[in-house]
Specification:
The complex is a heterodimer of chains A (389) and B (538). With 389 residues, chain A is an alpha/beta fold. Chain A has eleven helices and 19 strands. Chain A has a seven-stranded mixed beta sheet with strand order 7-8-9-10-11-18-19, with helices on one face. Chain A folds into two domains: 11-153 and 290-332, Metallo-beta-lactamase, Chain A; 159-286, Rossmann fold (3-Layer(aba) Sandwich). Helices cover 36% and strands 24% of the residues of chain B. Chain B has 20 helices and 23 strands. The relative contact order of chain B is 0.09. The chains are: A alpha/beta (389), B alpha+beta (538). Chains A and B meet through α8, α10 and α11 of A and α4, α5, α6, α15 and α19 of B.
């Protein structure tokens, strides 16, 4: 019955192995979801950040190293954990996890059925941060990728250069009698910083949220450098000589203000842009991200050899257009990822500095005739937003 | 140039005034004197002349970045600053150039008579020898859009601490039309009589607002506490024109705007009256359009500020005159140390003998006996075509810059309407990649008609919330502009309103800004175009 076989193949081709639904990325054949944002029966979790690991699912599947953090964050859940590369079969569909290099325990999810391979990246970075299992490209037909920093202005420097800056800044603060407060999100960034600090300078103190995460990771058998939780009893003088790791939510709170006088640094990919950095009102912005930069994204996508790449969050429209222009088959898809922990907190009030009134601007621009503005009337000469720091 | 790039980075890295001053001092102490003067010129808003057309710079930057032009444009939307966009997009490497700021500015100025090919070669080579932070400041020099997040007064403070010369004296010495190529650091340090340069203006004395916002109204009791006895104060209308300093020295005349631009040629109507002044006279006042002895709203003056050539028609439609309110120099003598009272008398004497009384007007003093009474008079400001009231302490000398205590401005409350946000666009600089520029609409029947753009007035926290809303409630995208689901209502304040044929709504607002976010109002309760037009009659 050749006609029937052809019809079956047609049906299989018509229904993609993974589809984008209003609950998350769904595998109808295997009856499971990947990183669903609404409660489902079976959820495969790429990593434990809040926009990828939601509460309320009946069963969870994740990497071993996500176990304790997931239990700490989501409470009592029905959780199965596996090693990278260890296959799990659900309704005939083969699932395996592969290192994403994003944070400890983060994974790309490889899904295979009848020779068709899809990979869901979750979030990833291609640089080895020394603490997360380094990213491994997984060959596939369809690649579902993030692109948080999918603009060419985002180009990261090797992390060693950034940590040299951080260590020098810490030393300098110590000499000036300033406390050193370094902000990064609690799962991933905090541990990456912790493992790369020069501990000959001093001790590492932690905010409760970060220390709870550290403890969960240690229960999971992860070796982390020693840290000390900041408590009301902590000696202010001792803490001042060390470095304090704090989550974004603590910026501008009384918790942080009690370390005064301090210098406050912020670790994030967004710090690459001067405007974004000034908006955070941090004393120092360190360009350190757990997401791939522009070149990293392109090299990762290229290494999969995929036929089609789906972009879930970040600068999806721009990045898709560019990828299509250079010969990839790229599509934008809508998901709820990306409201993640790299999203930054409310900035604190900044020093107000007087700026010329619109009138003075108008006259100045009129008088100095050598100031044509750039295209579309969006030139800097007409922008009143550049003035105060 | 490394020092100069580092100066930028370091200034970005602190919000504390004292640290900024320290950073500036470190810079001054580490660079040659010629760099000091160039830096001073740049920070005082004197950018080098643009030698390469902006479009060419942009095109060559796209070439050097090896990306398509549309992606360059989108990157610019994200970064919000052209010089920075170009610096970030080019291949990253460590710079190996040891040229100083003076060297680079010299090279830029020498480009004037070069061919386009020569300019391109020079630019490509220059970019290739600079690292990304140097490239950023280099691009700023090149594109002339040079703005820094540090006030001139802070730079002067740092220089004053290094040199031991008082800040007001230094501020005065760097006023006017000096060139960093010819005015040396040594001259700056020894320049005991700055008015040897006959064009040099005095630093303006600027008033502080007595009430921060219209929501915090000052009562007569509060004014009494802040200002004391009514009899110690002189009150005038706060005129809505161009603040200017007019100089007659050595037979020559100069008109300076508050932005330190020499605007002598822009106002030919004033020349006869200035020439008639005695030599060694400097007057402070407001330039306004006048008809039949009455000031006209600012928008009439605005029609001529942008013009390169002042046609006969423009001069007839918008004739300019002065309302003078102070005198800083008389008979060649700096009289800023004299009291307000004494200076006023001198000004009145000058006015009494002018052959051009219709051009040289005197700012009338407002007589009042109680703060309450002055508050009532302030209500008439709009009818007087004034922005409010100025208060000057009769015993005060003429000071430098914005100083609290002796000069206060008491502006009238803005007019306001409740409007719906319908379009949004990303901001620049500190607000890059955030939707901060909004277009507002009022109801005309069942349609929303856009009538004003505003991009200030919200707190950073509110901006983040509005940005979040916009990104999730976009109906359409037109290039950088998004059409937003009409839902959020804001109270929009403005200083004045005029008929306009250029706008769909038929009106144009002066200084529109967001007064507050009306969480309590549904969009149906926003105001109507009729309400807005009702203000036209006032």
């Amino acid at each position: 019955m050749p006609g029937f076989v052809v019809y079956t193949i047609f049906l299989l081709m018509a229904k993609p192995l993974l589809e984008f639904t209003d609950k998350g990325i769904y595998c109808a054949q295997g009856k499971f979801y990947i990183d669903p944002w609404k409660p489902v029966d079976d959820a495969v979790i790429t990593h434990a950040h809040a926009d990828h690991a939601y509460p309320g699912n009946k069963r969870y599947l994740a990497h071993h190293h996500s176990r304790e953090v997931l239990l700490y964050r989501l409470g009592e859940i029905n959780l199965q954990t596996v090693e990278y590369g260890e296959p799990v079969i659900k309704n005939g569909v083969r699932i395996s996890l592969h290192p994403a290099g994003h944070v400890i325990g983060s994974a790309q999810v490889r899904v295979e059925y009848h020779g068709q391979v899809w990979v869901v990246s979750g979030d990833y970075k291609v640089e080895d941060d020394g603490i997360s299992a380094p990213f491994e490209p997984v060959p596939c037909h369809h690649f579902i990728s993030e692109c948080t920093f999918g603009m060419p202005v985002y180009q990261w420097k090797p992390q060693q250069l950034i940590f040299d800056d951080i260590n020098n800044w810490w030393r300098n603060n110590q000499q000036q009698g300033l406390a050193t407060v370094l902000v990064g999100y609690s799962l991933g960034k905090a541990q990456r910083i912790l493992q790369n600090l020069d501990l000959s300078i001093g001790k590492v103190y932690t905010h409760g949220v970060i220390e709870n995460t550290n403890e969960a990771l240690r229960r999971n058998g992860i070796q982390l450098n020693p840290t000390e939780r900041v408590t009301p009893d902590s000696s202010k003088e001792e803490v001042r000589k060390g470095i304090i790791l704090a989550p974004p939510s603590s910026v501008g709170t009384p918790w942080m203000r009690r370390f005064q006088p301090y210098s406050f640094g912020y670790c994030s990919g967004w710090m690459a842009i001067r405007g974004a950095k000034r908006r955070r009102a941090a004393d120092r912005g360190f360009v350190l991200s757990d997401h791939a930069d522009w070149d990293g994204l392109i090299s990762a996508i290229d290494a999969t050899g995929c036929e089609c790449v789906y972009l879930t969050h970040g600068y999806t429209a721009t990045f898709a257009r560019y990828l299509n222009e250079i010969g990839y088959n790229a599509r934008e898809v809508h998901t709820l990822y990306g409201d993640d922990e790299e999203v930054l907190p409310q900035p604190s009030d900044e020093e107000a500095s007087p700026k010329p009134s619109l009138k003075e601007r108008a006259l100045k621009d009129a008088v100095s005739s050598s100031s044509p503005s750039f295209g579309e009337g969006r030139g800097e000469a007409s922008s009143a937003e550049e003035e105060p720091l | 140039m490394k020092n100069f790039a580092q100066l930028f980075l370091s200034l970005d890295e602190t919000n504390k005034t004292n640290e900024k001053v320290k950073v500036l001092k470190d810079y001054f102490n580490s660079v040659p004197d010629s760099d000091k003067m160039h830096m001073l010129a740049l920070f005082a808003g004197r950018r080098p002349k643009r030698q390469i057309n902006a479009t060419l710079v942009r095109n060559w930057a796209i070439e050097a970045s090896n990306i398509p032009a549309w992606l360059f444009e989108e990157s610019y939307q994200v970064v919000g600053d052209l010089a920075e966009t170009m610096a970030l997009l080019m291949p990253q490497h460590s710079g190996n150039s040891s040229k100083t700021l003076t060297d680079w500015i010299g090279e830029i100025n020498a480009l004037g008579d070069k061919t386009e090919e020569e300019k391109k070669l020079w630019l490509m080579e220059s970019w290739a020898m600079l690292d990304s932070s140097e490239r950023f400041v280099f691009n700023k020099l090149l594109t002339g859009g040079f703005r820094v997040g540090v006030s001139q007064s802070l730079v002067v403070k740092a220089l004053s601490e290094i040199s031991g010369i008082a800040a007001p004296a230094l501020t005065h010495r760097i006023m006017g039309s000096w060139m960093p190529e010819t005015y040396t650091y040594a001259q700056l340090m020894q320049d005991e009589s700055p008015s040897d340069d006959i064009s040099r203006p005095y630093p303006f004395f600027l008033a502080y607002p007595i009430q921060e916002t219209s929501e915090k109204q000052r009562s007569a009791e509060e004014l009494k506490i802040i200002l004391g006895e009514e009899s110690e104060w002189q009150a005038e209308w706060k005129w809505d024109g161009i603040r200017s300093q007019m100089i007659k020295r050595g037979g020559e005349i100069f008109i300076w705007s508050r932005g330190e631009d020499l605007a002598t040629d822009k106002f030919p109507e004033l020349h006869p009256f200035l020439h008639a002044l005695p030599d060694g006279t400097v007057i402070d006042g407001e330039l306004l359009s006048f008809r039949e002895g009455k000031p006209l709203p600012f928008n009439v003056l605005q029609t001529r500020i942008g013009r390169k050539n002042l046609s006969k028609k423009i001069l007839e439609e918008s004739p300019v005159a002065v309302i003078a309110y102070d005198c800083m120099e008389y008979n060649g003598e700096d009289i800023r140390h004299k009291s307000q009272d004494e200076r006023r008398q001198i000004l009145e004497r000058l006015h009494a003998v002018t052959p051009y009384p219709e051009i040289f007007n005197l700012s009338k003093l407002i007589t009042f006996t109680t703060w309450d009474q002055l508050g009532e008079i302030r209500e008439q400001s709009r009818a007087m075509i004034a922005e409010g009231i100025m208060l000057k302490r009769k015993s005060a000398n003429y000071q430098v810059g914005r100083k609290r205590g002796d000069w206060w401005k008491w502006k009238i409350d803005p007019l306001s309407v409740d409007a719906v946000m319908i379009y949004a666009q990303k901001g620049h600089g500190r607000r890059a990649d955030l939707y901060t520029d909004y277009t507002f609409a009022v109801w005309d029947g069942d349609k929303l008609v856009p009538f004003a753009k505003a991009y200030s007035g919200l707190t950073d926290a509110e901006i983040n919330k509005v940005d979040y809303f916009i990104k999730r409630n976009t109906l359409e995208k037109f290039g950088p502009v998004r059409t937003v689901k009409p839902e959020l209502v804001f109270e929009i304040g403005f200083e004045g309103i005029n008929k306009s044929t250029r706008h769909k709504s038929g009106i144009a607002l002066r200084f529109p800004r967001i007064l507050r976010w009306r969480h309590d109002k549904p969009k149906e309760e926003a105001d109507t175009l009729e309400t807005l037009k009702g203000f036209l009659g006032e």
